[in-house]
Automatic annotation (TrEMBL):
Residues 1-13, 36-45 have a biased composition (Polar residues). Residues 14-27 have a biased composition (Low complexity). It comes from Colletotrichum fioriniae PJ7. The keyword Acetylation does not apply. Keywords: Membrane, Transmembrane, Transmembrane helix. The chain crosses the membrane at residues 80-100, 139-156, 200-233, 705-730. Residues 1-61 are annotated as: Disordered. This is Uncharacterized protein.
Length: 820
């Protein structure tokens, strides 16, 4: 040793790593803790084959350096908790983020958040808030990476003192999240021993932890940063506490009657609707005539492809009448296989929700709720608050004759045997039987005064009452007449309704597209539940004049009397002056090429089906809409929205006498609206930023977090099981089963210090490796922490170091010895 120092000083170099004083006599060192060394050529050995020798109890320091020794593993109760300190923040924050991200909760509006600081207001816009939320997302990312790194380090340090680790993996335990390391030859050429699956598990877990740490940052941001959309209203508002909220002043059976008759609601007392007033009076079924007439008038421009829309002038909400062409599979003839399906939301619902929307836009509510946009949704899932809409099947057939009187007894079949009857017995009775139009049903055929003129009959029932309606008529052509017969099957169908002011001003329903309409007709995706079946409508003969109002008026020029009906005025739109000299001056049909029978049938089915659908949607119109709410300082109140926001500006309110009945001062009686009126049950959402909306990115982020929780859970289960098993193992036995709470080398710097103080390895593979290994295969050398005879820890590399007899020994993992 002294000669080495002298040589160093001769060259002007001071070796500070070697002691300058003679080492103490090693004979004074007590016996070493482990007296076994592997025999030469022995490849696989147990680190505890020889019995342990009990060390002196007063041995605290080591004469090798005269410093204070330290234990490698913990023996006290801290070994159960120290390793988990880094996991608790990551687990707590992950669980909190998962809980928040899955709560359907509104956070703030599109404009951001206004803060009142002293006498000033500070507004944080949405972008600023979203950017600020990136900070906790980043902190959460770092906590998870630290947690995963802690697991890797625990596995790595355990291997370092038991079986050793590969040279290529010597820094792997500290490089979780380092993608570049996964691409180095040190990682890929470190080799794996198939008899030691722990090596594969350790390397594989580093790869897994690195990939998770790469995606955990974006996943945290996805879960924490709110998204723009519709969110449920807070439970603290009246609209969530009071259910139902809106009432329509008509009982449910009258709102959607299954049997329409003149002397019962909703047509009782509306006799004026059968005449001229029926064209324009708001509460009449045919009050939508002007809108239908305007839509039909544009047939030349769009071939009636546009959906007609309707609205209630005091409000901005509209509804559309949707129609679709369905196929009648029972018919083999294309010309006879067309059925038109038509539907629209009920008019009373559009009016009621339109009035409520105006109420929400009032200064009173803007001040209370902030003026955000609100979406309204109804649902038929609630048995007591179902809302129906009309559903009409219409089908027409035509037959061309030189003269109407020439119609034969079987020339024109009534198209009434192919409707979907929804188990209605009256409708089913026409299936499988053919019925034909004749001079008895077409009473005008022998009337020469009507020859060559358009004739439009009114709807008629088959018998005194029926669920099937008929419509017969004629349209003149050049040198011929086109006779038509139409059949109709009407029903009420359950539906959901949505009004989204951010999207459109139209009230949408479950049947707002052709796919849903055809699904209803073909029973592909609707009415699978018997409680959701359609309710067919039966018509009494007395209500037919309400459906098609008419009136007589004298002509000022010739003084003759003319009869006008709603359908007559519409069919007249489809005629123009005939081109034939023989029929000059007379009207002729012009909408389509009547030689195309199918196109003509579809055209007439569409026109008359749309008209009947609109009439049915208005059968229960003109009743009041009430809002049940609370007023500060008062009890429950029933507010008349029809007067306050409708065609009048009168404020009419009724106070509730108790929790169920209000005092109707008009009739001086107590009324329970739940029994007397139709409840319009709905939910409200407001537009802004929030959490809880399912989307692919959210599902991916949740999966990532669940994977992390699963990994930590499995790790905790393994550690807990090993702690439990260790109580039944004799001390010093089965080290691979025990949980080792290792103290040093939690940081790469500590491992570097250990490498610097270790003796140079004797392996030949390290010769000339100062600038890097010459052969990548050498990364598979085993590196292990061992102790020399003076209880100094060192990094031993390869068999050359492991087999130094009487110089290197296993370290004590029981925490009974101290090392330098």
């Amino acid at each position: 040793m002294q000669s080495v120092n002298s040589s160093s000083q001769a060259h002007g170099v001071t070796n500070t790593l070697l002691p300058t004083e003679p080492l103490p006599d090693t004979t004074s060192v007590p016996p070493r803790a482990y007296s076994r060394s592997p025999s030469p050529g022995q490849g696989n050995y147990s680190p505890f084959e020889a019995p342990l020798e009990e060390p002196p109890k007063d041995r605290k320091t080591f004469p090798a350096y005269g410093g204070q020794g330290k234990h490698i593993t913990r023996k006290n109760w801290l070994r159960f908790f120290t390793g988990w300190a880094v996991h608790f923040p990551a687990l707590a924050s992950t669980i909190a983020i998962l809980f928040i991200s899955q709560q359907d909760r509104y956070w703030y509006s599109e404009e951001g958040v206004s803060l009142h600081v002293g006498s000033s207001n500070i507004t944080l816009n949405a972008d600023t808030i979203n950017n600020l939320l990136q900070l906790p997302a980043k902190i959460h990312e770092l906590l998870i990476i630290a947690s995963l790194s802690s697991i890797v380090l625990a596995m790595f340090r355990r291997s370092l003192i038991l079986d050793g680790v590969r040279l290529g993996f010597l820094t792997g335990g500290y490089r979780v999240g380092d993608l570049t390391y996964l691409g180095t030859s040190a990682f890929w050429r470190q080799g794996l021993n198939t008899r030691k699956p722990w090596e594969f598990l350790l390397a594989g877990f580093v790869v897994f932890a690195t990939l998770i740490s790469t995606i955990i940052g974006p996943a945290s941001a996805v879960l924490l940063v709110p998204t723009l959309g519709w969110y449920s209203l807070d439970q603290a508002t009246d609209f969530q506490k009071i259910k139902p909220l809106l009432f329509y002043a008509l009982d449910p059976e009258s709102v959607t009657p299954s049997f329409l008759q003149e002397d019962a609601s909703p047509l009782h007392g509306k006799a004026t609707c059968k005449s001229f007033a029926g064209f324009y009076v708001y509460g009449c079924p045919a009050a939508g005539f002007s809108d239908i007439w305007s839509w039909a008038q544009s047939f030349r421009a769009g071939d009636l492809g546009d959906k007609p829309s309707f609205h209630y002038p005091p409000t901005e909400l509209r509804r559309e009448l949707v129609f679709a062409n369905s196929s009648d599979s029972s018919s083999s003839s294309p010309a006879k296989a067309s059925i038109i399906l038509s539907t629209t939301p009920p008019h009373f619902l559009m009016v009621s929700l339109g009035l409520f929307s105006d109420y929400m836009a009032s200064p009173e509510m803007v001040k209370t709720l902030g003026g955000e946009s609100y979406r309204i949704k109804t649902s038929y899932q609630q048995e007591e608050h179902k809302i129906f809409q009309p559903f009409v099947q219409s089908k027409c057939r035509t037959f061309k004759k030189p003269k109407a009187a020439d119609l034969g007894p079987t020339d024109l079949e009534l198209p009434i045997k192919s409707f979907h009857c929804f188990e209605d017995e009256n409708c089913l009775s026409f299936h499988g039987k053919s019925h034909f139009a004749n001079k008895k049903t077409m009473t005008w055929l022998d009337d020469e005064a009507l020859e060559g003129r358009p004739v439009s009959d009114k709807f008629r029932t088959v018998g005194e009452n029926s669920s099937i309606l008929l419509l017969l008529g004629q349209l003149p052509e050049d040198d011929a007449v086109l006779l038509y017969a139409c059949g109709f099957m009407t029903s009420w169908v359950l539906s959901n309704f949505t009004f989204d002011p951010k999207d459109t001003d139209i009230l949408k329903s479950s049947f707002s597209d052709q796919v849903s309409l055809n699904g209803t007709f073909n029973l592909t995706d609707f009415f699978k539940d018997p409680t959701q079946r359609a309710q067919p409508i039966t018509f009494d003969r007395t209500v037919l004049d309400y459906l098609v109002p008419s009136f007589d008026m004298d002509d000022d020029e010739d003084g003759s009397n003319h009869h006008y009906s709603a359908l007559g005025r519409i069919t007249k739109l489809f005629t123009e002056a005939c081109e034939s000299p023989k029929s000059s001056g007379l009207p002729c049909v012009s909408p389509v090429d009547t030689n195309d029978e199918l196109a003509t049938n579809i055209f007439l089915s569409k026109v008359f089906g749309v008209y009947l659908t609109e009439v049915l949607s208005r059968t229960s119109s003109a009743y009041f809409t009430y809002l049940k709410t609370t007023i500060p300082g008062k009890n429950l109140t029933l507010r008349n929205l029809s007067k306050q926001y409708g065609r009048s500006i009168t404020h009419t309110e009724f106070n509730f006498h108790n929790a169920t009945h209000f005092n109707d001062t008009r009739r001086n009686k107590l009324v329970n609206p739940d029994n007397a009126y139709s409840a319009i049950q709905f939910t409200m959402d407001r537009y802004g930023y929030g959490s809880g909306h399912s989307r692919p990115t959210l599902d991916f982020a949740l999966s990532t977090m669940y994977i992390y929780l699963g990994v930590v859970g499995i790790y905790a289960a393994i550690i807990g099981t090993r702690h439990l098993v260790s109580f039944f193992i004799v001390e010093g036995e089965k080290p691979h089963v025990r949980v080792l709470s290792i103290i040093p080398w939690s940081d790469l710097q500590d491992l570097i210090v250990l490498a610097l103080k270790s003796s140079p390895p004797l392996v030949k593979e390290f010769k000339g490796a100062g600038t890097g290994l010459r052969n990548a295969k050498h990364w598979n050398l085993i590196v292990k922490v061992m102790a020399d005879k003076n209880q100094n820890l060192t990094l031993a590399v390869g068999d050359s170091d492991f087999h130094k007899k009487n110089e290197m020994d296993e370290v004590d993992y029981e925490g009974r010895f101290s090392y330098s």
